[in-house]
Amino acid sequence: MDDFLRGKKLAMRFLAARMYTSREIFDRLRRKGYSTELAEEIVSELIGEGLIDDKRYAEFYISDNVNIGYKGVYRIKQELLRKGVPGSIIERVIANADVDCETALREFVRQKLSVTEIGTRKDYERFRAMLARRGYSLSEINEVLSEYDFDFRNK
Question: What are the pLDDT digits (tens) for 41-51?
């Protein structure tokens, strides 16, 4: 069996386990010892067959990470860029995405505050920083946290 078919079978085994971006498949093939040219050829073939689709990957990734992972748009964008999804695709998919980040943030804050004690200003600032690291904007964070009554005067 020639290298192209072996590489394509390997890539298809990767894709049988879960979705990957075109760059992730390319990188995995390179790590397995395939040349740059051959890896590009295999990825192009899989894209042509519809087995790799960065736009579809981004749609699922955004939906899952907002609704299940409770991540904000900024963090999701960075993660998709690291996975090799072009910025133009990310922007287009986010613009058309049917996800509600604010509702996800509200739910995440509600869950966290049910098990986390915010007793001091320092605790509050740590909590806000954690939400910012999850990819939410400060305006989103401030809007959701303004719905809660934090009393720091006695502590």
Answer: 999 999 999 99
Q: Among 51, 57, 48, 7, which Cα is nearest to 31's?
A: 7
Tell me whether residue 68 is in a domain.
Answer: yes
Q: Is 150 a member of any domain?
A: no
d(CA 103, CA 42): 41
Other beta carbons within 10 angstroms of residue 80's beta carbon come to 23
Whole-angstrom Cα distance, residue 133 to residue 146? Answer: 19
Residue 138, in any domain of the structure: yes
pLDDT exceeds cutoff 90 at 99? no
Q: Contact at 8 Å (CB) between 109 and 143?
A: no
Which residue range is the domain that position 64 belongs to? 54-96
Each residue's pLDDT tens digit, 6-40: 999 999 999 999 999 999 999 999 999 999 999 99
- HSE-CB of 76 using CA atoms within 13 angstroms: 27
Whether 153 is covered by a domain: the verdict is no
pLDDT 10s digits, 119-143: 899 999 999 999 999 999 999 999 9
Say if pTM beats, i.e. exceeds, 0.70. yes
- Which value, to the nearest 10 degrees, does the dihedral of the CA atoms of residues 129, 131, 135, 138 take? -70
Domain at 30, CATH number: 1.10.10
